[in-house]
Amino acid sequence: MKKAFLLLASLALCLLVIACAQDNSAVRGPNTVRMLGASFAVASITIHKGETITFVDDSNEGSLHILVIGKDGQPISEKGAPDFGGLAGERLDVGDSWTTPPWNTAGTFYVTCTAHPTTMTLTVIVI
Asked: Which pLDDT tens digit goes with each residue over 4-13?
């Protein structure tokens, strides 16, 4: 009886450790931007030079997004902005996440979604 209890307690502890280890840093990271339906969850984000941004297309409320550097759904070349795949952009389907290359130039930049041009422009401030 005592061995069975210890075995069950050990199993429960192992399952708890495994569950905690499956931390989705893309959802919880400091430089994370969630996308809901046809909008970013925030209007702007401030990061430090050399950092990245992880975009998360919400698995419950997301939709297809195609991210590019630019405003109002229009790709615009911004000197110093990282590459988002050029005019084709970076495609995210529901539940996907993507981490940008490092933002190595200080300044203000814009990220937009070509699928939702009137509602999705994110201001990125790099300090």
From this structure: 443 344 444 3
- Fill in the DSSP letter of residue 100: P
C-alpha dist (Å) from residue 74 to 42, 44, 71, 110: 19, 18, 5, 10
Q: What is the pLDDT of residues 36-87, one digit of tens each?
A: 999 999 999 999 999 999 999 998 888 999 999 999 999 999 999 999 998 8
The CATH number assigned to the domain with range 32-126 reads 2.60.40.420
Question: Residue 52 and residue 33: Cα distance in Å, rounded?
Answer: 11
Two tokens, residue 48: 């430090």
**Rounded distance, CA 101 to CA 82, Å?**
6
Q: Where are the domains of the chain?
A: 32-126
Count of helices and strands (H, E) across the chain? 2, 10
Question: pLDDT value at position 3?
Answer: 56
Residue keyed to tokens 């996907």: 96
In the structure encoding, which two tokens stand for residue 43, read together? 């209007």
